[in-house]
Each structure stands twice: as structure tokens, then as C-alpha cells.
Amino acid sequence: MELLIIFLLMLIIPVYASIKVNLSYKKYVKIDNEKKLTGFDVARRILDENNLGEIYVVETKGTMSDHYDPRRKTVRLSTDVYHGTSISSLAIAAHECGHAIQDKEGYTWFKIRSMIFPIINIGQKIAYVVMIIGLFLSYLNYVYAAIGFTFLGLLFELVTLPVEFDASKRAKSIVLSDGMISDSEKSGVDAVLNSAAFTYVAAVISSMLEMIYLLMQLNDRD
Fold first, then answer.
1. Per-residue pLDDT for 220 more than 80?
2. Which residue of 57, 103, 121, 220 lies most exposed, with the fewest beta carbons within 10 A?
3. Which residues contact 197 (CB under 8 A, 6 or more apart)?
């Protein structure tokens, strides 16, 4: 019964977080910011004002596929955000620029995440292969590999939390202090960024539950 509850929570929490962020995004994507600034306008303005004129702002395919690429020094914004003048577009563009500023300032957690990403990526690929092999050879080896896979993911997610929270904090401060939004629009920006941040919290909780689930399974085998 305990295993079933944990398993259900593992499924429900990420789904709830995804629904929450989608509802916030869809609500505020229908509301234009008062200055009618596009996501591109917001990003370019923030970058230029922070002496990051060398950072590119480009349009990328997909929905909610926005991200900052530290290797290519590029802020990539999805079509709706790049061209959109909504509260959602403004908030997301500002958030991604927050990462560019972190990169410029050498923000500790951003540097740590960048350093461990390739190591964790390789480690997860190895663990995944062992998991597949374990399915055919030994259930115990499968569980050990799954624990290793989940642990590496959890480690990355834990390091990601302060990076994302800090980028959102920077974004909220910049758009308000720079006059891009009025006081009445602040709640909308907060709602979009807070719901997005919750997805990272949900990922950590889900991975922790998965670790507990796997360890309990391991204990049952002993």
C-alpha cells in the first residue's frame, strides 16, 4: 500500500505542476503588457542595459521551449514569446535573460550546474544502459542502476533550484525597476514565474519519492 501511494504521488505531482504552469501561461498570454513590448524587445533591452550586447536573441521552434544557451551565448525564445506582447512573454523573456546575467556575473550555482551537466548526462546514459541490461539479466542490477539514474537526476535538479529561483528573482526586479511593467502587472509576472518555478520543486519532490520507492523495493528483496 505504501509503495502504491508513493508511486501515485510520483505520477500526480509532476502532472499537477505541468497543469499549473500551463494554466498560468495561458491566462496571462491573453493579456498584453501595457507597454506592448515583445519578448524580443524585453530580452534585447535587458541584455543591452547589462552590457551583454554580444548575446544573441533568436526565435526557436516549439511552445515553452525558451532557454539560455551558455555555450553559444544565445537567448532562445519560442515563437509566441519572441513575437508576443503578453505578460507571459515579457516574464519568460526576462527570466531567460536572468540566466545570461548569471553567466556574466559567474553566479556560483549556475557555474556548478554547467560543470556537472555533462558528467551527469554521461552517468545517466550509462545507468540507463545498465537498467536495460538488468531487465534481462538481474532485477537487482536493474534496481541498483535505476537508483543511480534517479540519484544523478535528483542531484542536477537540486542544483537547478537556486539557479531558477535566482533568475526569476532577477527578472521580477528588473522589469519593475526598469519600468517595463506597472505595479498592477506585477501580480501577473509573479504568477507566471512562480508557477514555472514550482515545476522544478515538483521535479525534486518526484525524484525523491522515486528514490524512496526504489529503496523500498530493494529492501523488500532482502
1. no
2. 220
3. 164, 165, 168
